[in-house]
């Protein structure tokens, strides 16, 4: 179970130096925060020279604190004309500051420096204080900060990246020994790239021995300020110290990808790849984007809550928060998204669930801007209608028009996107270093070293996968006239959902009909939708519709789901190679599986495409580019398209 996140307590010494009462230690030297960061961490890691003329450079830090090291690194990157194309900075923090305390702590350090605007940008993007990985982007995405809120002793082992430089910056080993253990150094060694360097202000004997045992060479150099000595060094193991090499970029001759499907999954992949400079060819069988499930008038977005903070809860939390960042960035760049911004209300199934979830939220110490329990009377006030029970409010949840999002993502791609409609992809074939996509007539329609399958039900078939089972779920929406629920102010979800749209229409739904291929609207499905919503909003029981149920408007679409209700996101396995080596892979883990070079999937999103699409696209783009993954590895493995193959291998049931 996820531990609750406990924020840092801000205090200052008499000389104005920020101080942690919890660890009885200072956040930076009294001689100067910026000077310390430049001397210890930049100079100690031979930066900026080591990142120059590289495509990607990754820094991993233990202990974000006030963020001084990140800000100084970012400023140095900005000032370097020969800088790397993309700078990734990954940092762990067990006790993050609140946004206000972060600004207060930074103010004295950056008051008279050119770094002040960067500090303000950091504060403006500061994430909600909930556990997990939070990916922030600056300078048009060329500088990425991945903050991992949680205990480094637990979170470092869940990261997946190739570090070029380590900033070892926890509180003093005598004050905070948990950040200077052999287990910590071993976790760092798993993530070290070739010739990765490290620097730290300490020269304690236990630190030297721990680093050396993990495969790092060290040397003592003059320390900063009043410190007599500090350590610098590099990763240079004398023998193999890890089972798997950290991720590397996919070797391609041209950065060109084919994306099959232009719903939420495909358009998000287009935006994330073109943001990195990739050229993308999109293939869509319809005449425009967002024509199937993504073509619904509106969809709701919110994290999934559970009493034990399950894998599903953690994944949807990460996806929800990342999607909000991506959408805000699109709007900042002038793209119009049609969405509501007044929150979303979830009604509990019964009073016991309302009480139990309120207790769970309190035990996890979730901030009110993430989720807030509400009584029945408060829920009625927020909804502006009578409600059956209390529940919880997501202040940043709401609704969005998926088609407006898809259009914005394609517009953001600009000249890097070639759009081709009326193309029904049927199969693929590997020829030399490229994948060729063929249509139903057997005509080759596109080729590239990378293909991303975002075409829902068709993905596994076109890709030729045998161990990627999905099912189709029919969903019928119902549009209620403006007289039905005209008072409703925010989307309400629970047994069903009701979404007030700007034109006065209320969208309700949706049915969940497994393996039902009927594409026609049905009166009984309209009645089912209204009855389920009426269980949350009792006033709808008394509404007299001018139309009969058969005359109500609506829409039918088909969701693609897996048996575990989690999406398929990531690199495809080479199923044939895995089955040939089935005996060796009986006890395999995801990193052991052979992969089909250049093939990726983003499908089976079920009812949560809005929450999963942006994060899934970022995960795939990171895998292709060899960048740090945006979520913990155990979460990515829960989404791995090869997870069903892996289960079959473990059970001895895998078939060619």
From TrEMBL:
What are the residue boundaries of the MnmC-like methyltransferase domain, all occurrences included?
Answer: 116-233
Q: Where in the cell is it found?
A: Cytoplasm
SUPFAM superfamilies attached to this UniProt entry: FAD-linked reductases, C-terminal domain, FAD/NAD(P)-binding domain
Location, primary (coarse class):
cytoplasm
Q: What residue spans carry the region label FAD-dependent cmnm(5)s(2)U34 oxidoreductase?
A: 260-656
Alphabetical list of Pfam families matching this protein:
DAO, Methyltransf_30
Sorted keywords for this record are:
Cytoplasm, FAD, Flavoprotein, Methyltransferase, Multifunctional enzyme, Oxidoreductase, S-adenosyl-L-methionine, Transferase, tRNA processing
tRNA (mnm(5)s(2)U34)-methyltransferase, as annotated region: 1-236
What the entry lists under NCBIfam families is as follows: MnmC_Cterm, PRK01747.1-2, PRK01747.1-4, tRNA_MNMC2
Name it. tRNA 5-methylaminomethyl-2-thiouridine biosynthesis bifunctional protein MnmC
């Amino acid at each position: 179970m996820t531990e609750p996140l406990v924020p840092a307590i801000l205090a200052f010494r008499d000389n104005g130096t920020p101080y942690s009462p919890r660890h009885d230690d200072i956040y930076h030297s009294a001689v100067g925060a910026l000077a310390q960061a430049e001397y210890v961490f930049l100079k100690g890691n031979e930066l900026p020279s080591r990142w120059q003329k590289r495509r990607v450079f990754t820094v991993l830090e233990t202990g974000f604190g006030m963020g001084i090291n990140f800000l100084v690194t970012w400023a140095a990157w900005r000032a370097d004309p020969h800088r790397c194309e993309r700078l990734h900075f990954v940092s762990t923090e067990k006790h993050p500051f609140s946004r206000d305390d972060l600004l207060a702590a930074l103010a004295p350090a950056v008051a008279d420096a050119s770094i002040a605007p960067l500090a303000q940008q950091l504060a403006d993007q500061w994430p909600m204080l909930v556990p997990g990985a939070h990916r922030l982007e600056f300078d048009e995405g060329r500088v990425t900060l991945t903050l991992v809120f949680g205990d480094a002793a637990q979170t470092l082992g869940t990261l997946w990246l190739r570090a070029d430089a380590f900033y070892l910056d926890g509180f003093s080993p005598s004050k905070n020994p948990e950040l200077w253990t052999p287990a910590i150094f071993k976790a760092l060694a798993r993530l070290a790239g070739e010739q990765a360097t490290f620097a730290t202000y300490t020269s304690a004997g236990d630190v030297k021995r721990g680093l050396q045992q993990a495969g790092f060479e060290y040397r003592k150099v003059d320390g900063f300020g009043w410190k007599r000595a500090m350590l610098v060094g590099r990763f240079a193991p004398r023998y193999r110290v890890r089972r798997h090499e950290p991720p590397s970029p996919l070797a391609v001759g041209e950065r060109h990808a084919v994306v099959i499907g232009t719903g939420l999954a495909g358009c998000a992949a287009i935006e994330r790849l073109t943001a990195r400079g990739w050229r993308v060819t999109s293939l869509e069988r319809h005449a425009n984007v967002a024509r199937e499930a993504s073509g619904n008038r509106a969809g709701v977005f919110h994290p999934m809550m559970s009493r034990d903070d399950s894998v599903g809860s953690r994944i949807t939390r990460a996806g929800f928060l990342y999607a909000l960042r991506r959408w805000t960035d699109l709007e900042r760049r002038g793209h119009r998204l049609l969405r509501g911004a007044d929150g979303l209300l979830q009604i509990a199934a019964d009073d016991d669930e309302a009480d139990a979830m309120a207790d769970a939220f309190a035990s996890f110490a979730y901030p009110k801007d993430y989720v807030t329990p509400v009584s029945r009377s408060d829920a009625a006030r927020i909804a502006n209608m009578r409600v059956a029970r209390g529940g919880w409010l997501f202040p940043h949840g709401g609704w969005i028009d998926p088609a407006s999002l898809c259009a914005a993502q394609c517009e953001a791609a600009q000249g890097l996107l070639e759009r081709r409609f009326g193309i029904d992809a049927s199969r693929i074939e590997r020829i030399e270093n490229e994948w060729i996509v063929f249509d139903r007539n057997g005509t080759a329609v596109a080729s590239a070293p990378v293909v991303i399958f975002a075409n829902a039900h068709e993905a596994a078939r076109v890709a030729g996968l045998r161990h990627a089972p999905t099912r189709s779920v029919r969903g019928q929406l119902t549009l209620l006239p403006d007289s039905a629920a005209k008072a409703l102010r925010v989307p309400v979800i629970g047994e069903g959902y009701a979404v007030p749209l700007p034109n006065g229409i209320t969208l309700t739904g949706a049915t969940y009909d497994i393996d039902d291929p009927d594409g026609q609207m049905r009166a009984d499905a309209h009645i089912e939708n209204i009855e389920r919503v009426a269980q949350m909003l009792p006033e709808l029981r008394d509404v007299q519709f001018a139309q009969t149920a058969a005359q109500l408007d609506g829409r039918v679409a088909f969701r693609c789901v897996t048996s575990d209700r989690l999406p398929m996101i990531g690199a495809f396995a080479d199923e044939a190679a895995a089955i040939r080596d089935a005996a060796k892979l009986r006890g395999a883990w995801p990193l052991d599986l052979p992969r089909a070079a250049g093939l990726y999937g983003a499908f089976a999103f079920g009812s949560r495409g809005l929450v999963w699409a942006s994060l899934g696209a970022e995960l795939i783009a990171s895998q292709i580019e060899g960048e740090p993954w945006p979520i913990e590895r155990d979460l990515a493995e829960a989404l791995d398209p090869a997870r069903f193959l892996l289960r079959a291998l473990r059970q001895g049931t895998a078939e060619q």
